[in-house]
Design brief:
This protein has 383 residues and is α+β, with helices and mostly antiparallel strands. The chain folds into 2 domains: 305 residues, Acid-sensing ion channels like domains (Acid-sensing ion channels like fold, Sandwich); 37 residues. The chain has 12 helices and 15 strands. The termini are far apart. It holds the Pfam family ASC. One of its GO terms (cellular component) is plasma membrane.
Length: 383
């Protein structure tokens, strides 16, 4: 490649040009029961799997927007209600004639479900992957579960509570996410060893050189391996890992105290090939096409609350109640026992400080009566 381009090439631009166009793959798009132009709601963006067609993604954390997103303004699409008709429906063409080398041993699509503010990196734990083959119709049901943390846990350290509030993270970016922190940690790890950034990672001003073909051997050693990720300082977790050379240590990548997670369930059905004139396949000869439905089946969102379960005075009351129930003593008994011990010790120390004074003995002369030397009964007889 260096000979072909004369050592003057950008691997990111090459991979972008080799990526199939979204307008060729995405044939029909429906959102909230309205047909929309797929090019208006989908944009080309970077993911862990390279360049992909992305819906509802705001790439604000690493500043890739000017080059890889054609929209002038980022727009988030919100569902108005539950059900398939209020979700996203896409008819897709796999372009099987364009297949040359696949990452996965299958044909079709790899669909990733992730948060709009997170970079789609499967290794960070915030992405759900779904495989969709040709001539299939898949129904993807989403369930949102939120996490809410009260201010009662703020006085505790991040190590104690195990999470971080957004205003506790100092950065040039407007938001903090655990996902982006892990991605930045991976980028820093590769940069420290190979002095470059893998092309599909977002642009970062601290890692401004893109890896090329000359860095393949270094990437195979320090990137293309299964790493154990330690997101923050944890001596117990670090000591339990056997291979320290295959461990990546990050700097304070704590989960968010306020977060939203999306869980996925899916069902699939087959599509018979042939000519169709329906809403999803208007005047089309279906050969290898597939349909994807993404929607919320139920209304409402579950929220988990993170709070201080037991305060010190509550814990003291529980201990006192247990002792009173099983032993027959109370906290007051312990207080009285301590009081009497302190009182006894204070009296003992005072007695040591007192010096006994020697009392003088005086010789006293008293008259002696003979009757005192005889028993009382004899004295009576003489009388």
């Amino acid at each position: 490649m260096s000979k072909f381009y004369g050592n003057n090439y950008d691997i990111t631009d090459i991979m972008e040009r080799l990526t199939p166009q979204c307008s060729s793959m995405l044939l029909n798009c429906y959102f909230r029961n309205q047909r929309m132009n797929c090019s208006d709601i989908f944009s080309v963006g970077k993911t862990k799997n390279g360049f992909c067609c992305i819906f509802n993604y705001i790439a604000e954390s690493f500043g890739d927007a000017p080059k890889f997103f054609k929209q002038e303004e980022f727009k988030l699409y919100y569902v108005g209600d539950i059900g398939i008709q209020n979700g996203l429906t896409v008819t897709m063409d796999p372009l099987l004639d364009d297949y040359f080398y696949t990452i996965l041993p299958t044909i079709g699509w790899k669909v990733m479900i992730f948060d709009p503010y997170d970079y789609p990196d499967s290794g960070s734990g915030s992405v759900s992957d779904i495989l969709l083959g040709p001539l299939t119709e898949k129904y993807v049901r989403l369930k949102a579960v939120g996490l809410y943390s009260t201010d009662n846990i703020r006085p505790y350290s991040m190590q104690k509570r195990g999470c971080i509030f957004p205003d506790e993270y100092v950065s040039d970016h407007t938001t903090y996410t655990y996902n982006d922190c892990i991605v930045a940690c991976k980028m820093e790890h590769v940069w420290n060893h190979c002095k470059c950034r893998v092309f599909f990672y977002p642009y970062h001003e601290d890692f401004n050189r893109t890896c090329n073909m000359e860095n393949i051997h270094c990437l195979l050693q320090y990137y293309d391996v299964a790493f154990n990720i330690v997101p923050y300082k944890d001596n117990t977790l670090s000591s339990s890992l056997d291979d320290q050379n295959a461990t990546m240590y990050c700097k304070n990548c704590y989960p968010e105290c306020d977060d939203m997670r999306y869980y996925v369930q899916s069902t699939i059905s087959n599509i018979e090939p042939g000519y169709f004139d329906t809403e999803l396949f208007p005047d089309m000869n279906v050969t290898n096409h597939s349909v994807l439905h993404v929607y919320f089946p139920n209304s409402g969102t579950e929220f988990l609350k993170q709070d201080v379960t037991t305060r010190w005075y509550e814990y003291l009351g529980e201990v006192g109640g247990l002792y009173g129930l099983y032993v027959g003593i109370s906290i007051i008994s312990f207080v009285e026992l301590i009081y009497f011990i302190i009182l006894w010790l204070s009296e003992a120390f005072k007695s040591l400080e007192v010096v006994e004074e020697e009392i003088p003995h005086e010789n006293a002369i008293h008259p002696i009566y003979w009757n005192e030397f005889f028993p009382h009964s004899r004295a009576v007889m003489n009388n």
